[in-house]
Specification:
Largest sheet of chain B: 7 strands, mixed
Strand content of chain A: over 45%
Oligomer: heterodimer
Distance between the termini of chain B: 35 Å
Radius of gyration of chain B: 13 Å
Number of strands of chain B: 11
Radius of gyration of chain A: 14 Å
Strand content of chain B: over 45%
Structural class of chain A: mainly beta
Structural class of chain B: mainly beta
Largest interface: A-B, 21 and 26 residues
Distance between the termini of chain A: 40 Å
Shape of chain B: globular
Helix content of chain A: under 10%
Number of helices of chain A: 0
Chain lengths: 119, 107
């Protein structure tokens, strides 16, 4: 069956980086984009960027350019999200989600990864 | 960037009642690429509607989406106890953005 499984919770210090993984299985990896979305405490959902596994290209809203780096490993069908120069405002739950090339919404989501930034 | 404004912020209703949620875009959403998600605490968001009006797989038919251009609506015809949650609209016609959410709470 289709699965999207994220790595576990992270605690990091301000100024550091974290890398969250999103392991996919049960479908053809290159047929779906992977998005990253976060939810800070008490806030709504915020889109952070998209990875096209076929060519490895990525797109981010301006807010996250240089802040978020997306990579993928074709051999393990895993997408990684590295978040740099952490501040307390990066404390949030981070989700990855897939979307088909037919653009029918984000239909399968990971379980979420809590990142806590604290000194 | 297309800004999505959802209203109301909170909707207080009883089970069995009808819920109407609005999502207004700051500019026309190309191809009516609007999706709706349900989000409950401690869970991942769940896709309900894509393409403004197409129900996602296994979504009950009490959920329906409508609209075009800049104005979109999610309707829940008769609220079930499990429907009380936060609902987000999202546009994917130009990049991606989410609305700020509407909380549907028990009256």
């Amino acid at each position: 069956q289709v699965q999207v499984v994220q790595s576990g919770a992270e605690v990091a210090k301000p100024g550091a980086s974290v890398k969250v993984s999103c392991k996919t299985s049960g479908y053809n990896f290159i047929d779906y984009y992977i998005h990253w979305v976060r939810q800070a405490p008490g806030q709504g959902l915020e889109w952070m960027g998209i990875m096209n596994p076929l060519g490895g290209t990525t797109t981010h809203p301006q807010k996250f350019q240089g802040k978020v780096i997306l990579t993928r490993d074709m051999s393990t069908t895993t997408v990684y999200m590295e978040l740099r120069s952490l501040t307390s405002e990066d404390t949030a739950v981070y989700y990855c989600a897939r979307e088909s090339r037919g653009l029918r919404g984000m239909d399968v989501w990971g379980q979420g990864t809590t990142v806590t930034v604290s000194s | 960037e297309i800004v999505l404004t959802q209203s109301p912020g909170t909707l207080s209703l009883s089970p069995g009642e009808r819920a109407t949620l609005s999502c207004r875009a700051s500019q026309t959403v190309g191809s009516n690429y609007v999706a709706w998600y349900q989000h409950k605490p401690g869970q991942a968001p769940r896709l309900l509607i894509h393409g403004a009006s197409s129900r996602a797989t296994d979504v009950p038919d009490r959920f329906s989406g409508s609209g075009s251009g800049t104005d979109f609506t999610l309707t829940i015809s008769r609220l079930e106890p499990e429907d009380f949650a936060v609902y987000y609209c999202q546009q994917y016609g130009t990049s991606r953005t989410f609305g700020q959410g509407t909380k549907v709470e028990t009256k």
